[in-house]
Specification:
The complex is a heterotrimer of chains A (202), B (84) and C (182). With 202 residues, chain A is mostly helical. Helix content of chain A is 59%, strand content 0%. Chain A is elongated. Chain C is elongated, with a radius of gyration of 23 Å. Classes of the chains: A mainly alpha (202), B mainly alpha (84), C little secondary structure (182).
Chain lengths: 202, 84, 182
């Protein structure tokens, strides 16, 4: 189960609300490569994963992604707090506003609500780890793109932090893949799926 | 910055280093250097959190020290600017 | 040769005591000073591995490693392999203290720390992953249809504050985005 740690993993303190920024950054909450998808991906993959080290990586990176989706929520909340309807309209956030007011609703920048179609849980150890490696890279690119579009240092700061975490997670999934390779038969990694097949000596 | 938020920032930094070590250890469970670092950080963080909770407020739902007040619902929530 | 340990001599060939072994062997009741005979005493002896001096038994040794004499932990080895060999669990596949059957070496290691047992390598000659080797050299001999990830050592750490600021405590994982021009 989870115990809630009453602090953000990294501080978020944004002096100037900005609805235009919120419109973009929301993709890291509910978008295809966002933190919510990441958390759901790893936490669901961990049940049938194999080898304690790999399950640990899925469990604990997945848990960290929950902390990250909280940071994105905090960023969006502070970016939209105290805005007037005029400011919201000027930023082009009126379509979101009409359905959600200033509520934080997990969707992409294009307005598509978050979707489990964004995640892969193939139930095969090697396939799932490759999915995870790709996911971390895509998330990193999304943060690169946010940094291309956002100027405010108060916003750039936690975004840079979250981007750095994606790179570290990429290495961690690399560690997981290495462990899988060490435990499996290098003559043929694909003879059996340790997450499912019995009697393979895995 | 208030004393509480300065203290919380210190805890954030030490807790983060601890989590980084733990993630590393998941992939390298027998690494003696990582284990030593983790042990050291864990003791540091534990002490800091105990200090914080007894003077500033709970960090988990199990950490409400004030016998007369359920601070859990009255201290700022982490997404508020004043909590950062 | 006699049973007096202070006559045991400094080289192993002189050392026969009690049971007159050609290496340093002692009867169960003996307690010779280790400095003299280069093997400590223990009733549980199995005598030396070839060329490595004081052999250690395959069981539960916890003698401290002093000056290259006999004492290796029975569990995950963290002694250099020029010292006392490998625990009973290990299967020595390469020179010196190899790694578990399931964990073959790729890196050329000069010290065998417990977390340092190297990565999979199907080839017995795992020289290729030494530092500075090209990616191709490092990966030669690896199975096709797979990607491989380099091993990260636990080193080059920032302090906690810097670590939080950078998003990682590991210098080697700090890869900032430079294209945004700000």
């Amino acid at each position: 189960m989870w115990i809630y740690d009453r602090k953000l993993q990294y501080p978020v303190k944004i002096k100037n609300p900005n609805a235009a920024y919120a419109k973009i950054i929301i993709s890291q909450l509910g978008g295809p490569d966002g933190e919510m998808a990441a958390a759901m991906r790893y936490l669901n993959q961990r049940y049938t994963a194999k080898y304690g080290e790999i399950i640990g990586i899925l469990n604990d990176v997945g848990t960290e992604e929950l902390a990250h989706l909280e940071m994105i929520g905090a960023i969006l909340y502070q970016l939209t707090k105290g805005l007037s309807p005029d400011q919201i309209r000027a930023a082009g956030m009126d379509q979101y506003f009409v359905d959600h007011t200033a509520g934080i609703y997990p969707a992409s920048a294009a307005g598509v609500p978050t979707d489990m179609k964004y995640i892969g849980v193939k139930g095969d150890l090697i396939a799932d780890l490759n999915e995870d490696l790709a996911a971390e890279q895509k998330a990193r690119v999304t943060y690169d793109n946010i940094l291309r579009l956002v100027d405010d240092p108060d916003v750039r700061d936690p975004i840079k932090y979250l981007r750095a975490r994606e790179i570290v997670h990429y290495q961690r999934f690399g560690d997981a893949l290495r462990i899988a390779q060490d435990r499996m038969n290098s003559k043929n990694f694909y003879a059996y799926n340790p997450s499912f097949d019995k009697g393979c000596g895995c | 910055m208030t004393r509480e938020s300065a203290f919380l920032k210190d805890i954030q930094a030490e807790d983060f280093a601890l989590y980084e070590a733990a993630l590393y250890l998941n992939g390298h469970p027998t690494c003696p250097d990582a284990l030593a670092y983790y042990c050291q950080q864990r003791n540091k963080v534990k002490e800091m959190k105990e200090q914080y909770e007894s003077t500033c407020g709970p960090l988990t739902i199990y950490g409400n020290h004030d016998q007369n007040c359920w601070q859990w619902v009255s201290t700022p929530w982490p997404w508020e600017k004043e909590a950062n | 040769m006699n049973d007096q340990h202070n006559n045991c001599g400094t080289t192993r060939t002189n050392c026969g005591c009690g049971n007159a072994r050609t290496n340093c062997g002692y009867a169960v009741s003996r307690t010779p000073a280790r400095a003299l005979c280069d093997c400590g005493d223990n009733s549980w002896r199995t005598y030396p591995r070839t060329g490595e001096g004081c052999g250690c038994n395959n069981g539960w040794r916890t003698y401290p490693r002093i000056g290259g004499s006999c004492g290796c932990n029975n569990s995950w080895r963290n002694y250099s392999r020029t010292n006392c060999g490998c625990s009973a669990q290990r299967i020595t596949e390469q020179e010196g203290c190899g790694c578990n059957r399931n964990t073959l070496r790729t890196a050329t290691e000069t010290t065998w720390k417990s977390g340092n047992c190297g990565q999979s390598c199907p080839s017995p000659v795992c020289q290729n992953c030494a530092q500075g080797a090209s990616a191709d050299a490092c990966l030669s001999g690896r199975s096709l249809a797979m990607v491989y990830s380099p091993h990260q050592s636990f080193e080059n750490l920032y302090n906690s504050r810097e670590g939080l600021c950078n998003g990682t405590v590991f210098c080697d994982l700090n890869k900032p985005f430079l294209a945004s021009g700000r």
